[in-house]
Amino acid sequence: MKKTTIALLAALSLSSSLTFADYPTKDIQGIIQWGAGGSTDTVMRSIAPHVEKELGGDIILTNKTGGVGAIATKYVNAKAADGYTLLMGAENPQMYKILGLSDIDYSDMIAINVLARGTPIIVANNDAPFNTMQELIEYTKAHPGEVKFGSTGPGGLTSIVTAMLDSQVKLDYTSIPYNGDGPALTALQGGAIDVMPAVLGATIEQIKAGRMKAISIVDVEANKLLPNLAPITDALPGMKSYLPWGPFFGVFVKKGTPDEAVEKLQAAFQKAAFNKDFVDLMQKRGFTIMNISGEEADYFLEAYRSTSSWLVHDAGFSKFSPEEFGIRKP
Amino acid sequence: MSSQSPMIKTRKPGERIFCFLLVLGSVYLFWQAYNISGFSSLSSPGAFPLAASAAMILASCVTFLNTLKVPAAKDVRFVYHCFPPVIATIMALILIYSVVLESLGFILTSFAFLFISIQFLYRRSPLITLAITLFALIVVYIIFRLVFQVVLPEGIVPEREILSSIKSLWR
Amino acid sequence: MDAFNYFAMSWLSPELLGLTALGTFLGIYVGAIPGLSVTMAVSILISFTFSWDVNYALCLMVGVYMGGVYGGSRTAILLNIPGAPSAIATALDGYPLAKKGLAGEAIGLSTIMSVVGGFVGIIVLAIAAPTVSEFAITFQPRDYMMLGVLGIMLVGSLSGSSLARGIFAGALGLLIGTVGLDPMTAEERFTFGVVELWDGINPVAVMIGMFGISEALHQLHHMNKAVVKQKISRIIPKWSDIKKYMPLSLQTSFIGVIVGALPGTGGDIAALMAYDHAKRVTKNPKVPFGEGAKEGLIAPESANNAAVGGAYIPMLTLGIPGDAVTAVFIGALFIHGLNPGPLLLIEQPHMFWFTVGNLTLANIFVLIFGLTGIRLFSKIVECPKGILIPLIFLLSIVGAYAINNAITDIWWMLAFGVFGYFMRLYGFPVGPVILGVILSSLTDENWRRAILSERGSVGDLFINLFHSPLSTVLFSVIVLILFTQSPIWTKWLKRKLFR
C-alpha cells in the first residue's frame, strides 16, 4: 500500500515536471518584492484572487523584502524555471545594474504582465509659501538651502523625479531621506519636510482632504483625478523628453520557463487585469492600467530602464555607467 | 536575568577570554564602522555605528579589566559547568539540522532532529519518542504550512505535488 | 444615536460576533507562536476574505489583531520566548514568575491588565482620536530621536548588576540594528558584500535566539532537576491585587496609547517604555524587578494592548498607519473598495464607531479566551525537559524561517542563540541587546534627519529644540531622568560612594 502510494506520487511529480499541458498541477508561489501593506503588496493581493479563478489553482503569496527587492528577485531566479514561482514586483529591478545592486533585472526575465503604471506628482505642505511649480522654482532660488525636499533613497521615484528637475533647472535644496513614501508623506503633513515628489495614488486622498497641496503633476497632460492641476511641462517644457514616465507593477517568471506555462499565466493575468473590480481599484488610486505582455511589455520595460538609468547616471549617483550593460541612451 | 549572580565576585572559567574576545570584536566592528564613511559628518551613515561600537569598546574594556581583578571561582571547570558535553552535542545537532534543512527539506530533517534529540534527552522507548515526534511534526506542519502558508523548505520531498493530489482526491 | 447603532453592529449580528470571537481566538495563538506575526496573519486573511463583505473581513482581522498582541505574552511567560517583540518586556518578569510555579497567576494577571490596557486604548480612540492624531503627526525627527534616546536609557534598568555589561549589550544591539543597506543613502553597513544582509538582521530572529535558544541551552544544565510544579489554584487574580496595580496599569496604558499613535513607533517600544516607567515609579517592589515583580509584568502588558487603540487613531482619522498591522489594514480597506485616508470618515461615517465597537468586543473576547485554558497552558512548563527543549528548538527554527521565508534568519537566530548562551553564562544581560535592535533605526535615522534639517549644525539643532514646546518637554524629561532617577546615575554614584 505504502509502496504504491510512493510510486504513484513519484510518477505524478515526474509527469508534472515533464508536460506542462495541464499546468498548473500544484500551488504557485507568488513572491512579492515589498512588505505587507505596501502598494505593490496591495496591488498583487487584489489581482491574485482573479488570477486564481482563471488558472484554476491556488497562488500562495509570500512577502520577501530586502535590498530594494533584490532579494526576492534573486530568490525567484534561484528556483526552477517551471512557472511555479512568480516574481511580483515594482519598477526597482530596472535600476539594479547601474546601482550595482544585482546583475539581474527584468530584461533577464519573462514578463507575464505589466499591470499598471503610476503618475508622479509633486506635493507640498499646506503652509509652504508656493502653490505652483513656477513659484516653487522661484522660491527655492531666492532662498537657497531652505526648502526641504523629502526623498526615499537613491533609485527611488523621488530621486529620479528630482534628477529630472535637476537636469532642467539648478535648485539648491536640502534633501531629507525617509524610509519609503509613507513615512515621508506623514512627515510632510507634520511639517518636517516642505516638498516631495510621490506617486499620485499615495497622495490623492490627502490632497482631496486638503491635508497637503498639489504643486504639479509630472506628466505631459493634466490627470483625470486632478483636472485643474497643471502638468510640469507648463513650467519646464524640457521635461517632455522624459515623460510620460512612472513607476509600475509587474509579474515575472524566470527565463527558460516552458512556453505552455508562460502562455497560460499571461492569458490568466490578462483576463484578471480586465476584471472590473480590479480596474476600478486601480483607477481610484490614480494608476493607469497597462495590462501588457510580450513584446509590448518588453518595449515598455526597456524604455523605462533607459530613461531612468541615464537620468540617474547623469545626476551622478549611479555606480556603473548604463553603457556597460548595453542600455541605450533615450 | 535568570542566570545572573547578584554580584560577580568570582569569575567563571573562560570568562576572561570571553571578555577579551569581546574587546577584540568591538575593535574590529569599530574599524568596520569607520570604513563606512569615516569621520566625515554627524549625519553620515557611519556616525551612529561608530558611536555604538565606541561604546562597545569602552564597556568591554571596563568588563575585561574587572575580570582581571576578580579571582577565579573554585571547583568550577569549563567542560563541566560552563560547556558540558550535552550542550555541545545539542548545539552540533542543531547546526547539522540547519545546514541540511534546505537541501533535504523540512519534513525529513525535522523528523530526524526531533527523534534523535528527544531520544537523547528523554531516554524512553523509541516508540514513545516516535509518537511524540510525529505528533509534534504534524501539529507544526499544519499550523505553519497549511494554515499560515509558510512554504517551508521542500527539499527532496515533492510536498506541493502530494498536497495537490490529496486536494484532487477531495474534489 | 447612529453612532450607537454602528457601535453595536458587530455585537448584534451573530455572524459578526462569531467572526470576531474566532479572530480573537486565532490571534491569541498567532501571537503566542514566535515568528508568526499578526501582520502576516492579517495579510493572509486579506486573500482569504477577498470575496467577503468588508465588515465580515474586518471583524475577523480586528479579532486577530487584538488577540495577537495579547497572545505574545503567553510564550513569554511560559517559555521565555516572546511571541512578538512587544512581549519582550513581559518575559523579563513573567518568566521568573513561571519558574516559581506561578505561571497561572502570571497569565491571569497579564490577561486582566491587557484588557484594561485595551480598553484605555479604545476609550482614547473613541473620545480623542482627532486631537491625538493631530498631536502625533507634529512629532519632528528630533522628537523621535529623543524618544529613541529615552528608550536607550532603559539599558540602565535592564542591566542587572553590572552596568558596563549592560551598556555593552545595549550598544551591541544598536549596532546590530544598523546592519544592512542604510535606508537613507543605500550605503552598505556591516554587510561584507553579502546580499542577504542588505535588509539587515531581523529583530525577531535576534529575539528568538537571545531569549529562546539561549534559555533552552541553559536549561540543559538542569536536566536532572525536577520540573517546577505549577500552582494552579489561583488564576483570576485577587481583587485587592487588581486594585493595587490599577493606577500603574492606567499610567502605562496612557504611555501605550500615545506611543502607539505615533506613526513611527509601535507596541514594542511602548511596552519597553512602560516597563521602565514601572521600574521608576515602584519604589519598593515586593520582589525585585527581573526576578518576578508583578509590576514588571503589568506595565508592558497594559501598554502593548493600549497601543492597539493608539495605532488606530492616525489610521482612522488620517489614513496614516500607526504600526505595521494598521498598514496592512489600510491595504485591506483599499482592496475592499474603500478609500482609506483623511476622507474615510466622511465617506464612510459608520467605519469609526463600527471599529470602536468591534475593538471593544474583541477586547472582551480576549478576557474570555485569556482566562480559559490557563491550566492546560501552565502544564507546558511541567512537560519533561527532554521533550520540551527539542520542541523549543524546532519551534524557534521554524519561527525564524517564517519571518521572511529565509534560511539566513535561521542562521542569525542560531548564532545569537549560542552567543546569548555565553553572554548569560558570563553575566551579560541579553535584554539590552533586543532593546538596542528595536531602537536602533528609530534613533539613527531621526538623529540624521534632525541634523540634515539643520544643515549639519548641532548648535542650531539644540537651539531650535526650544522653539517647540513638545521638544522642550521631551528634552527636559531626558535630562530629569538622567540626573535624578536613572539607575545609570544612581548606580554610578553608589559605586563611587561605597567602594
UniProtKB/TrEMBL annotation, chain A:
Domain of life of the source: Bacteria
Pfam families: TctC
Protein family membership: Belongs to the UPF0065 (bug) family.
Gene3D superfamilies membership: Bordetella uptake gene, domain 1, Periplasmic binding protein-like II
Statement: the UniProt record of this protein carries the keyword Signal: yes
TM segment ranges: none
Lineage, uppermost ranks: Bacteria, Pseudomonadati, Pseudomonadota, Gammaproteobacteria, Oceanospirillales
Keywords: Receptor, Signal
Protein name per the record: Tripartite-type tricarboxylate transporter, receptor component TctC
Signal peptide feature range: 1-21
UniProtKB/TrEMBL annotation, chain B:
Pfam families given in the database record: TctB
The keyword Transferase is assigned to this record: no
Domain of life per record: Bacteria
Keyword annotations of the record: Membrane, Transmembrane, Transmembrane helix
Domain DUF1468, first and last residues per copy: 19-153
Transmembrane segments annotated in the record for this chain: 17-34, 46-66, 78-97, 103-122, 127-148
Name of this protein: Tripartite tricarboxylate transporter TctB family protein
UniProt source species: Marinomonas polaris DSM 16579
TrEMBL record, chain C:
Domain (DUF112): residue spans on this chain: 18-435
Keywords: Membrane, Transmembrane, Transmembrane helix
InterPro entries associated with the record: DUF112_TM (IPR002823)
Cited Pfam families: TctA
Segments crossing the lipid bilayer: 16-42, 54-72, 106-132, 144-177, 324-346, 352-374, 386-404, 410-440, 461-483
Top-level lineage group: Bacteria
Official protein name in the record: Putative tricarboxylic transport membrane protein
Protein's organism: Marinomonas polaris DSM 16579
Lineage of the species this protein comes from: Bacteria, Pseudomonadati, Pseudomonadota, Gammaproteobacteria, Oceanospirillales
